Amino acid sequence: MKRRIVIKIGSNVLTRADGKLDVTRMSALVDQVAWLRKQDIEVILVSSGAVACGRRELTVDHTLDSVEQRQLFSAVGQVKLVGLYYDLFREFNIHVGQVLTMKENFQPGEQYRNQQACMTVMLENNVLPIVNENDTVSVTELMFTDNDELSGLIAQMMKADSLILLSNIDGIYTGHPDDPASELIQTVAPYTDLSKYIQTEKSAFGRGGMHSKYHTASNVQAAGIHVIIANGTRDNILIDLIEQPESTPHTEFLT
Q1: What strands, in cross-sheet order, belong to the sheet with 226-231?
Q2: Spatial contact of 115 and 105, defined as CB atoms under 8 Å apart
Q3: What CATH number should be reported for the domain holding residue 93?
Q4: What pLDDT digit, counting tens, does each position of 42-85 carry?
Q5: In degrees rounded to 5, what are phi and psi of residue 106?
Q6: d(Cα 58, Cα 46) in Å, to the nearest integer?
Q7: What pTM value is reported for the model?
Q8: Where are the alpha helices (DSSP H) in the chain?
Q9: CA dist., res. 24 & res. 30, Å (int)
Q10: How far apart (Å, rounded) are the C-alpha atoms in residues 5 and 66?
Q11: Based on the structure, what is the number of domains in the chain?
């Protein structure tokens, strides 16, 4: 049976300092996902970046409130984002399919089963699912906390073996990551409380932060799924996590 991995790529991995999409990094991550598939690993991609794409695509000459901005930029940006993925994966003859979802689709019932069946048939037919929240209709209380939460729910729905959360830092530290005295926490046993180490600030371009990743990782770990938090801005991070995990900085939640 194939190993199945859910990979979540955060906005801070996919965007440059100016907020524009980093196509070079996106291309490098696609190369690595293609390599994983050659190792007979099934991959489900949960990708942020639609709002950042849309924001750089449009110039709006009037005031929009936060909900209108999110709806407009995500609607325009999602097309561009998936189009880029389509072009990049096509170089490897990999077919991709878009899955836009909402929090209510994870309640027990018909919508849950339909979404699960859709992604299952995609994987069975060698299509790589690219998942994102449907930001055009998901607003306020209907929204996921962020794509960390979404990726955790997808990992559980699809009975993944592992969830990899790619951030722009190496993992969870004993203090602020910029503090030389801080140490990277390499392994986390089940039911270990790390809350005293977690910084509360959000990421620059996304809605999440390390608090969100820790919360998601703990929930997914409790469901019996192995979780890794790693730095998606490192070269070849996905390959190194598979080939040389002991020498690759990351935080691993053990099961």
Answers
A1: 95-101, 127-133, 41-47, 3-9, 162-167, 226-231, 251-253, 187-188
A2: yes
A3: 3.40.1160.10
A4: 999 999 988 888 888 887 877 787 788 888 988 999 999 999 99
A5: -100, 5
A6: 24
A7: 0.93
A8: 11-14, 23-38, 50-57, 66-90, 110-124, 147-157, 210-222, 237-243
A9: 10
A10: 33
A11: 1
**Gap between the Cα atoms of 149 and 146, Å rounded:** 6
The token pair at 165 is 């959360």
Q: Would you state the structure tokens that stand for residue 204, as one six-digit string?
A: 């620059």
Dihedral of the CA atoms 237, 239, 242, 245 (nearest 10)?
-40
d(CA 38, CA 95): 14
Which residues neighbour 30 within 8 Å (Cβ) at sequence distance 6 or greater?
85, 88, 89, 92
Find residue 166's DSSP bridge partners: 9, 230
Residue 151's domain comprises: 3-253
Instruction: Give the distance, in angstroms, between the CA of residue 217 and the centroid of all CA atoms in the same chain.
Output: 12
HSE-CB at 229 with a 13 A cutoff on CA atoms is: 28
Helix (H) or strand (E) holding 162: strand 162-167
User: How far apart, in whole angstroms, are the C-alpha atoms of residue 171 and residue 234?
Assistant: 12
Contact 35, 15 (CB under 8 A): no
For residue range 130-188, list pLDDT tens digits in order.
Answer: 999 887 776 665 577 789 999 999 999 999 999 999 999 999 999 888 889 999 999 99
Q: Are 142 and 103 in contact (CB under 8 A)?
A: yes
231 by Cβ neighbours in 10 Å (0-12 / 13-18 / 19+) ranks as middle
- Looking up tokens 């699960």 gives 116
